[in-house]
Design goal:
It is a single chain. The chain is of the alpha/beta class and 325 residues long. The protein is built from ten helices and 16 strands. The strands form two sheets. Strands 1, 2, 3, 4, 5, 6, 7, 8, 9, 10, 11 and 12 form a twelve-stranded mixed β-sheet that branches. A four-stranded parallel β-sheet has the order 13-16-14-15. Helix 1 packs across helix 6 and helix 9 packs parallel to helix 10. The protein is globular and about 60 Å long. The termini are far apart. The structure holds threonylcarbamoyladenylate (TXA) and magnesium ion (MG).
Amino acid sequence: MLQKNTSPKLINSVQKAAELLRSGELVAIPTETVYGLAANAWNEKAIRSIYETKGRPSNNPLIIHIKSQDSLNEIAREIPEIAQRLAAKFWPGPLTLILKKQPTISDTISANYDTVAVRVPNHPLTLELLNAVDFPLVAPSANRSNHISPTKPEHVMKSLGQNSPYILEGGSCEHGLESTIIGFNGDDVILYRQGAIPQEVLESFIGIKIIDFAKQKSQINSPGTSEKHYSPKTKLILTKNIDEFPFNDSSKIGYLTFQRQMSVSGKNVSITLSETGDLEEAATNLYHALHQLDELNLDLIVAEKMPDYGLGNSINDRLMRAAAI
Ligand code: TXA
Ligand code: MG
């Protein structure tokens, strides 16, 4: 059922989203992290069209979304005990586990790796949707490959343009930053991507240090760790000291700060991520701020480095990739 007076691509009915997915269509779905571009995980044609719609390289695998931990055995095998404990604690929620895949999982999803990424998302509509269909949903973030992730329906439309599928309207995403991705190698727990759950929180729960993917010794697979990602079209510089980039009349600069409020003049603009210095609020606002700044035809975005703990590390990770050339 289409809403009146809104884009024809927005839908507000879980049943309609379920019908579209059953018939092999893609649907953009809300999650607590970012909007996902979802397809039936058992429909090979639909999975391939995710890669086409995003312009995503076929060697970058996708995350499978399941309705509860009870469905995990359909997706993964030889699940370590520590993975079961993490799932029990953090699902539904922004934690993705990399596990050995069941042979039934398409190589298109896993990009020919023998592992698969899986999580239970925590958004009421998407959980309702997962319960309405009898298949898991495969869903990367609903943006063009390497661009800024979407935390609102309008970001999906802007990023995917005429390729945008129907979007299940679920408001603004609560966390605004993708899930944290964890994998296992023998007794080691590996961090593949910093995200909405800080590394420290996971470490204090499991009681051991998590090894950064980039720093681990053994050779295990490395998809999706490319340097440039999450990028605005506008050039972005990340700095500890924003005063090193004073504005002038000849260029238009957009400043992105953590807590500090800058007084800028002329065509320069500034956005503060959290006036109260709350890292959760900063994470929630990050992508929307980048989308806003990217629309202003600025010469440069100067982003201030966040504190280097907790979610500050996850935000810095995204800003570093946005700044990579
Ligand atoms: O919060 C999220 O995780 C969002 C929402 C929609 O769930 N999804 C998301 O998906 O961020 P995507 O595709 O944008 O990022 C998934 C990441 C990629 O960096 C990919 O390389 C990695 O997960 N990944 C997927 N399968 C993997 C595997 N088998 N081994 C290592 N990394 C994997
Ligand atoms: Mg993504």
